[in-house]
Amino acid sequence: MYFVGLFIMTMGIALSVKSNLGVSPVSSIPYTLTCVWGIEMGKATILFHAALVFIQILLLRKAFQIKNLLQIAVGFIFGYFTTFCNYLASFLPTPHNLAIRLCMVAVSIVLVAVGIFLYVPADIMPLAGEGTMKTISDMRNIEFSKVKIAFDVTMVVISLCVCLFMLHSFGSVGIGTVISAVFVGVCLGAITKLFGGKRDRMLAEGV
To answer: CA distances (Å), 123 to each of 11, 131, 137, 189, in order?
Structure first.
């Protein structure tokens, strides 16, 4: 469930890149690094995850557990999944019809939400992004899906500012990014309400 969830997420990310309407918020900053400095997206993803682990250390201080450094190792896996899924997406024809591109964004949103829905409750080791969100959720006692929305919007704003300053264009940010920033969290909340109980029973039975 854990690795399937991670892979489904990267499929969603690759689809958002292919739509050319702006990447999914979860990868907006890594893709911005790709656009601005030419770093391959998988490697940029690894660097971004390492930075998020550092933020967790700053937030938690002495409460930070050493085992959470494994989020960097998971970031390597996620980075290589991202590279592989982008490679697979390169074989798809580049769409020019706006309706098709918006459909790709919608499918991307669902895939990213399903990926999070599957891999986070597996409770092995979260990605640094979700680890940071969970840290904030636990510290502030805020529902995870709401933290997800706020976190994604923040990533989009940072990406947009960097792209405008460095590239004088929207770069990695587009209408698809804005839509995803709002609706991945909404979709995750809906999926959890519909299937969360069944998922949790499956995990309990597997213990």
So the answer is: 21, 11, 16, 18
User: Which residues have CB under 8 Å from 193's CB, separation 6+?
Assistant: none
pTM flag (> 0.70): yes
Q: What is the pLDDT of residues 46-58, one digit of tens each?
A: 999 999 999 999 9
Amino acid at residue number 131: G
Grouping H, G, I as helix, E, B as strand and the rest as coil, residue 24 is coil
Q: Would you state the torsion angle of the CA atoms of residues 67, 70, 71, 73, taken in this order, to the nearest 10 degrees? A: 180
Helices assigned H by DSSP within 20-143: 28-37, 41-60, 70-89, 98-119, 128-140
Q: What is the reported pLDDT for 207?
A: 57
Alpha carbons 46 and 44: distance in angstroms, whole number: 5
Contact between 163 and 170 under an 8 Å Cβ cutoff? The reply is: yes
Placement of tokens 């680890």 in the chain: 131
